[in-house]
Design a protein that fits this description.
Chain A has nine helices and 16 strands. With 429 residues, chain A is α/β, with parallel strands linked by helices. Chain A is globular and about 75 Å long. The N terminus of chain B is likely disordered.
């Protein structure tokens, strides 16, 4: 590697952050009385231990939780790094340490340069103040100099599209306007290092796109960016590198593609191993689904690119021989609307006999879904009344990722499906 | 390897950015310089606290006039008319009350606003970094603005009674600064404690109410028996109030110097206690708030 010491702008060495939970967490809003009572109690116990000659037990009522453990990495100047991982993996804690909001318990971080962090858009916005006033307030809270804000003021207002309401208190703003203004200020930050928590999960699709464009500008100007998101599409389009956190440790550190694969596959496995043990199901149980997943051409469970051949694989175990079993697979969107149902009784012949354990694969040559998260609902039933043998909703979750299906460099924004199409024009006159 | 960053830190050159080292329990070496570099944020937060103070009130800034005026009236009636306490050297009782009430209002407003400031700004504390000391200090600026308004009101009252201050008034800024410092010390200590123990939210209004009667606000401190006078000055506000009266009332109220010196010591002690406790706990605020 060509990296020299000068290139490294953030260096984290064996970083750890410990929180005390259990007794301590319920004491977050402790009252003096509680503390006094507990101190007396603790004092009594300590004194008793002392008399009996036992070592003093310190903090036996506390439970330690390591939100981050032994996290080491180096980030070079100009790198745009995505931090991904499941909820509770320590992503936000890491960002909080890097942005100096909280201090690490062990280890150290060295940062070379001016850091601005964006853990929430609109931090410090005051509802009673006008849009104009809030731009200055929020800007200086985020670390911009007054001169800098003045200089970029018009640009910020234009970006937020709120010219007309500049002198209206922001409490009269619609939530869309509020978010646009908040993001506009943040988007005009120009630190050497920008730390961004999942802040793009707000606003309408149109505005999100605009923000994404702005963020891409930022990353192309050689700025170092650390970016946390659950949206893999966003991570993929912005970042070159990904750090995957899992249970407070670095699970993977490498290119963004590897990172996303690592994250998605680990998540897919975690979701499916539970299906067999799920109790939120209906049916007489003569046949039970034990596993279900969707697989694209990459072979990673529950990740499919747009337009790929997708296989829905269902494994089952049956306590007795089931004749003429019908299997229905529903694909649902995040609002639990069924957007597609594939039932064997409609699309093929019913299965004659199912017994013991086995798997059923349904292959869709071209999955025409738009990017997003989809759920699989499974139902096995027997004619004529189609009473359920087993019925599980959310049996699998899969993600459809962006692909340039139209070869136009653009991704369809609205709707559920995409379809190949041809356009013709004909003049009438 | 481990020492490299330390060396870099000491070699901050013009071409090199300031190297920031984040470590457990690491004392901030450039604390006061860091604070200075955030002076713009201090300015804007102070401006915010002033700007929002009277938003969505019917009479707005007039509250800054009504509050001291009514308090003066009530005190004059209760202590001057009903209890018939003497005024200092024939000064009209309302003026004497007003001159003592000014520093008391400044003191108590700063004490209660600054003590709650960290809690009311919890969203900032947990989302962005800046030296936390800015928050309580900025909240006291709004109190200073109110103090200014009340001061104008006092001069109008003095005009009304035809009683004008003499040269001693040049010392007024000194005593005003002393009033700010005397409340900032305990306020810093309490606001840091308030992050951990919300009890202080209830204690403060009580202290302020109680303090108004144990401090010489409605009466002259000359009514205190001489043998208790020095002990009375353990209350840091006593010296400040006496000082105000001495400046404003042409020296008709005497300035008890041993008491003032004791006050200075008490104020310095509280300032030291407040800032050191604040700095020690500052880095855990975001975890506890």
């Amino acid at each position: 590697m060509s990296s020299t010491a000068n290139d490294v702008i953030i260096r984290s060495e064996a970083l750890g952050k410990k929180y005390l939970i259990g007794h301590e967490s319920s004491e977050r809003y402790q009252t003096l009385r509680d503390t006094v009572a507990r101190s007396v109690q603790r004092f009594g116990r300590t004194a008793r231990d002392l008399v009996r000659g036992r070592p003093m037990i310190v903090g036996d009522e506390l439970e330690e939780l390591w939100a981050l453990k032994n996290v080491s990495f180096e980030i070079r100047r100009g790198e745009v790094t995505g931090v991904i991982g499941p909820n509770g993996a320590g992503k936000s804690t890491l960002l909080k340490i890097l942005s100096r909001i909280t201090e690490p318990s062990v280890g150290r971080v060295t940062i070379e340069g001016r850091v601005a962090s964006l853990l929430e858009v609109g931090t410090g916005f005051h509802p009673e103040l006008t849009g104009r006033e809030n731009i200055f307030l929020n800007g200086s809270i985020l670390g911009m100099a007054k001169r800098e804000i003045k200089y970029k003021f018009d640009e910020i207002v234009a970006f937020a599209e709120i010219e007309k309401f500049l002198d209206t208190p922001v409490k009269r703003y619609s939530s869309g306007m509020y978010v646009r203004l908040a993001f506009a200020v943040a988007a005009h930050l120009e630190p050497e290092i920008l730390i961004v928590d999942e802040v793009l999960a707000v606003g309408d699709a149109q505005f999100q796109k605009k923000c994404l464009g702005k963020m891409q500008d930022v990353s192309q100007h050689g700025r170092t960016v650390l970016f946390v998101s659950h949206n893999m599409t966003m991570i993929r389009s912005l970042c070159s590198r990904a750090i995957v956190l899992s249970a407070g440790c670095v699970a993977h550190d490498g290119t963004v593609e590897e990172g996303i694969q690592h994250y998605l596959s680990s998540r897919g496995e975690a979701a499916s191993c539970l299906l067999e043990e799920r109790t939120d199901r209906h049916g007489d149980g003569r046949l039970r689904f034990t596993d279900a997943y969707v697989m694209g051409e990459s072979g990673v469970r529950n990740v499919v690119y747009m337009g790929e051949t997708a296989q829905i694989v269902v494994t089952f175990s049956a306590t007795e021989k089931v004749k003429k079993c019908d299997l229905s697979i529903h694909l649902e969107n995040t609002w639990s609307d069924t957007i597609l149902r594939l039932a064997t009784r409609e699309t093929a012949m019913p299965f004659t006999d199912l017994s013991g354990t086995g798997s059923i694969t349904c292959t869709i040559p071209k999955l025409r879904l738009l990017p997003g998260k989809y759920y699989v609902l499974l139902a096995a039933s027997v004619p004529p009344a189609f009473e359920y043998l087993d019925y599980v909703s959310h049996a699998a979750v899969f993600e459809v990722l962006e692909h340039d299906v139209y070869r136009s460099g653009k991704v369809p924004e609205y709707g559920t499906f995409f379809a190949e199409c041809e356009w013709h024009t004909r003049s009438i006159s | 390897m481990a020492t490299t960053p330390m060396m870099l830190r000491d070699n901050v050159g013009p071409t090199r950015e300031r190297l920031l080292v984040l470590e457990a329990g690491r004392a901030e070496r450039n604390y006061w310089r860091d604070l200075w570099s955030y002076r713009e944020l201090f300015g804007i937060l102070s401006w915010r606290d002033v700007a929002i103070r009277y938003k969505q009130t019917v009479i707005g800034i007039a509250w800054a006039v009504v509050r001291p005026l009514l308090t003066m009236l009530i005190f004059t009636v209760i202590f001057g008319r009903v209890a018939r306490l003497p005024s200092d050297g024939g000064v009209p009782y309302p003026i004497m009350v007003f001159a003592g009430m000014l520093p008391w209002l400044l003191f108590s407003t700063i004490l209660s606003d600054a003590s709650n400031s960290l809690i009311t700004n919890a969203n900032l504390i947990s989302k962005v970094y800046f030296p936390r000391l800015i928050v309580p200090c900025a909240s006291s600026v709004a109190a200073l603005v109110e103090f200014g308004i009340a001061l104008v009101l006092l001069f109008l009252t003095m005009l009304w009674f035809g009683f004008l201050p003499d040269f001693r008034i040049v010392f007024l800024p000194l005593f005003a600064a002393l009033a700010v410092l005397s409340s900032l010390g305990p306020a810093l200590y309490i606001t840091a404690l308030n992050v951990r123990y919300r009890d202080f939210r209830f204690i403060i209004p009580f202290v302020v109410q109680f303090g108004m009667y144990v401090s010489p606000v409605g009466f002259s401190s000359a009514v205190i028996p001489p043998k208790w006078r020095l002990l009375y000055h353990l209350n840091p506000v006593v010296g400040v109030i006496d000082g105000f009266r001495w400046c404003l009332l042409r020296g008709k109220s005497d300035l008890y110097l041993p008491g003032l010196y004791l006050n200075l010591i008490v104020i310095a002690f509280f300032l030291w206690l407040g800032t050191s406790y604040f700095r020690k706990t500052e880095r855990t605020f975001a975890d506890l708030i």
